[in-house]
Structure formats: C-alpha cells, structure tokens
Amino acid sequence: MMRGTSKTIPAKRLDWQKLAVSLVPAIVIWSICLGASPVPDAPASTTLVEISKCTTDIVLDIRYATTNNFTGKVVYPNSRCFLSKDAACALDTVQSELKSQGYRLKVFDGYRPLSVQWIFWKILPDPRFVADPRVGSRHNRGYAVDVSLVTLDGAEVAMPTEYDDFTEHARFDFAGIPEEARKNRAILRETMEKNGFEHFETEWWHFDYRGWQDKPLMDAAFDKIPEANPPCDCSQPGKNNDPVKVPRNAATP
Q1: What pLDDT does 236 receive?
Q2: Average pLDDT estimate for 150-154
Q3: The model's pTM
C-alpha cells in the first residue's frame, strides 16, 4: 500500500453452517479415539417386524433375556425378537424348506440395540466374536440372526457346540466334530444361504441377511417398540405389511 493512502477491506462474514459441516469428520474421529459411542443413524422411522408374527411355529430361545448367555446377565427386558421385514420373510422361507426335511428353526437372537452391543464389547472386546460398537453389528441393524435346528416336535439335534461358544469348535470350517453335527451344520448353512443369508465364519449359528451394508444402526429398546397388531404378511415381499415402526424418539440414551 502506498504511503498516504488507505483502503478499507470489508471483513468476510463467517459462515457458521459451513464451519460446522467441515468440523463433523474431526468430531467423529475425536469421539472414536476417546471411546465414545457414536450416535446411531436414526431415520424418522425404521421397519422391524417380530419374527413370531411372520413365522408362528418358529422356536424362540432368546438367551439374552435370561442369564443363560456368555454375560451371565439378563440384558433384554423380554424375549421378543425382531428383524428387518426382508430378513424375517426370508427366514420364513427357510423355515418352510427345513420343515420339509424334518427340522424347524430355533432362534437365539435377532435385532440387538446398540447399547447392548456396548455391554457385550466391554465383556469381550474381540471382533472375532463381538462387533466393535463404534462400527456396529449387523444385529444392530436388524439384519443378523442367530439360529439352530430342532426336530419338528422341538427336540434338540446335534450341533457343533453350544450357543455362544467362543472356541475354534464353533467355526464353520472346524472338522473335529461328530458326523451328525457336521451334517446338521451343513443343512442349516445350505438352507440359509439359499435364501439370501451369509454365514459368519467363527460362529456356526450366526447369519447376516444380504443388503445390511447401507442400513442404519439402531438403539431402540425392546420395551420401547410398540406391539405390531396384525400378523406379518410375507406374501408381498415389496410391500410393508403393518410393520412395527420405531420412531426417532424410541432410541435409548
């Protein structure tokens, strides 16, 4: 600037909205580094259905509603079991096909609130068996189910291990199990995979339904999810038939 002259440069107005948006990635990374739980993606409403309304003769053995699980604690307030509607209807098809072979499904777990995932992670922080809640589990999306086989009259059949056995014996590729258990494991896997589920290598009971990758994490507590009045109708796969609606304010803190 030349001596004896002056020029006023107007100050730029700070765009707070742009600044806030630019800081979001840093805030998320900072929260994860501190071990904080990320806020679940909470759409206005999320579709879940009770699997007992889609498949009336399915056997429910919801272990986390009891102390008979690896935590030794009751972590669910009741034994209701939910899945996304697509996954629940696919499970209904699995049930029909298994019944023609002399089996029925037993379900141990389905949708799991994210807050419960944190309980599991604090007890067993091993991603081979428990998903890191900072990333989230397929269970937290309503797209994973833990299942086994029983006979048509509900009797147990030979399977590789007990549920929640965190040893190599629970792996799908573990060979050192009795032939009957190996056969039943194969029947379960083949029927599930035929209907859109993918197996989880370290747990013979765990299956993820296709399309889970872009689904939001959820933290709606079971006792906050309203009852679905009509039964689930899987006859029209592209239509939501009276699903349970999980509103935004149903998420636990």
Answers
A1: 63
A2: 97
A3: 0.76
SS3 8: coil
Structural domain boundaries, residue 139: 43-250
pLDDT at 61 over 70: yes
Torsion angle of the four alpha carbons 40, 45, 48, 54, in this order, in degrees rounded to the nearest 10 = -170
In angstroms, what CA-CA distances link 44 with 142, 218, 246, 251? 16, 12, 8, 11
Q: Based on the structure, what is the number of domains in the chain? A: 1
**9 pLDDT higher than 90:** no
Q: Dihedral of CA 145/146/151/152: which sign?
A: negative
143 contact partners, CB below 8 Å, separation of at least 6: 83, 84, 87, 208, 209, 211, 212, 215
Phi-psi region of 163 (alpha: psi -120 to 50; beta: other; left: phi over 0): beta
Q: Identify the CATH number of the domain in which residue 88 sits.
A: 3.30.1380.10
Pure H helices in 45-200: 51-54, 85-99, 114-123, 179-194
Closest CA to 246 of 223, 214, 212: 223
State the angle between helix axes of 179-194 and 85-99 in degrees (0 to 180), rounded to the nearest 10.
130
Instruction: Give the per-residue pLDDT at 147.
Output: 98
- Helix ranges (H only) for 141-214 are 179-194
Residue-wise pLDDT for 50-60, tens only, equals 999 888 899 99
The pair of structure tokens assigned to 183 is: 């056969």
| Bridge partner list, 123 | none
Per-residue pLDDT of 129-138, as tens digits, reads: 899 999 999 9
